Amino acid sequence: MADAALNPRARLVIALMLAFGIAAVRGVAVLPVLVALPVLVALAAGQARHILRRLRGAALLALGVVVTLTLISGETVLAQIGPVALRLQGLEAGMLIALRLLSIVAVTLALLAPLSPFQLVAGLRGMGVPALMADLALLTLRYLDELAAELRRARLARRLRGGRTGWRALPDHAFLLATALIRAQARAERLWSAMRLRGYGSGLAVDLAPMRVTDWGAVTAAIIAALALVMLDRAL
Amino acid sequence: MHLPDGIVPVEMALAGYGASAALAALALARVKALPDPQAEIPRVAMLTTVFFAASLVAVPVPPVSVHLMLGGLMGVMLGWFSVPAILVGLFLQAVLFGHGGITTLGLNGMIFCLPALMAFGLWQLAGRRWPDLVALAAGSGAVLMALAIFAAIVLVGLPVVVDAGAERVALSIFLIAHLPLAMAEGVIVMTLLRVLRRVEPRLLPHG
Q1: Which of A116, A144, A177, B152 is deepest in the core (most CB within 10 A)?
Q2: Do A155 and B57 touch (CB under 8 A)?
């Protein structure tokens, strides 16, 4: 389903369909499907290891949700460890939220992480996102690494010069940010001149590749999978 | 303070998409009414990139480190442009960094865009007369408003099995833990706008 040659627009639609299908799950009976679905998508995309690495943050959050809800919610006590009671209803609710979260993040990463910034924006444009927003996304992605590196360098330089710490350092952070914004303004003026010289009109040129039969097939399969998941959830 | 995927019911997530789409349509209509909106795109993109990059770095605010939201500052500096800029930023954060979520993009849009527009309105209303006070209120107020919207969404969206009392205690702890962020953002926005008024007033709607 997530073939490397899939159209970016198809990938975005598939990601949204599967994500909303997973988000619609209400019962614990289909939890095994929530595990199987992202595994299948990740394997098909050949991204399993990469996704596992990037799931760490979401996994920590999911663990926090499970532990918290198990401790504070529900009537049926599963186990009592000293003053702490582990509750069944909280565990179920926590597992449901955690698996929905992990499953959606894994599917999103498997489908969208392989796209280059340019392909991602082309996909957005193909889905009807206004040119202004697509251009904003493209330019933001284009300059993000550069500006983030500038900010990091400025912060490091401030620390090396023995800058203030704690609350007293807040004005220094504001000065760094102000400098970055002033530089960004100057850069934006140069960029606008260049864009006008290149004949910028209604949006930057993004390659809107047409959807092929395989793309439509993958989108249809994703819609069917999402609907089947919801129907199975409601039936069980 | 991003709402992750899977926390709220799908109906709420879809409603969030609807609300954010309506807000984006309104903002884009306002933007298109400007004399030359296309000329603003590089400036808005550059400033969005700076806000985006700055929000990725943790700033030490004892006793913790916080990630700045900068919603109030975006509202003051970008006006109606802040809505498409924030939505684009949230989408990229969800896809590239796993912050927030793809199904909760609409709800997160409301959490961040409404405070930015509040800050913009505040600055338009009284920024010329009391710039420092309004900057402080815009910076801190945007964080507090975002916290309030976030808390309201979580209260409505969490499963009924969660004990209401425990939920309220957890949310209170969460809100109190974010108060240093609100104060820090207020100080940063006030200082930053003071610098910009002196050095580069063109960056402000009415320097």
Answers
A1: A177
A2: yes
Residue among B21, B8, B204, B179 nearest B101 (CA): B8
Minimal CA–CA distance to A15: which of A121, A123, A95?
A123
Q: Do A177 and B7 touch (CB under 8 A)?
A: no
Type and span of the H or E element at B169: helix B164-177
Q: Which domain holds residue A163?
A: 122-197
- We report the CATH number of the domain holding residue B90 as 1.10.1760.20
CA-CA-CA-CA dihedral for A185, A187, A191, A194, to nearest 10: 120
Helices within A55-130 (DSSP H only): 56-72, 88-112, 117-126
Residue whose C-alpha is closest to residue B83's, from B94, B73, B74:
B74
Q: What is the pTM of this model?
A: 0.88
**Dihedral class, residue A169 (left if φ above 0, else alpha if ψ from -120 to 50, else beta):** alpha
Question: Does A71 lie in the same domain as A188?
Answer: no
A88 and A104 housed in the same domain: yes
Touching check for B30 and chain A: CB below 8 Å? no
* CB-based contact, B33 to chain A, within 8 Å: no
B51 contacts A141 by C-beta, under 8 angstroms? no
Give the ipTM.
0.84
Please report, in tens digits, the pLDDT of each residue of chain B (207 residues total): 788 898 889 999 999 999 999 999 999 999 988 888 888 888 888 888 888 887 777 766 665 667 788 899 999 999 999 999 999 999 988 888 778 889 999 999 999 999 999 999 999 999 889 999 999 999 999 999 999 999 889 888 876 666 777 777 777 888 888 888 888 889 999 999 999 888 888 887 654
Residues of B in contact with A147 (CB under 8 A): 46, 49-50, 53
In a domain, B124, yes or no: yes
User: How many structural domains does chain B have?
Assistant: 1
Using a CB-CB distance cutoff of 8 angstroms, which residues of chain A are in contact with residue B196?
178, 181-182
Domain limits for position B40: 10-203
Q: What is the dihedral of CA A80, A84, A88, A91, to 10 degrees?
A: -140
Residues A109 and A215 in one domain: yes
Q: Are residues A83 and A102 in the same domain?
A: yes
Is residue A2 included in any domain, yes or no?
A: no
CB B56 within 8 A of CB A180: no
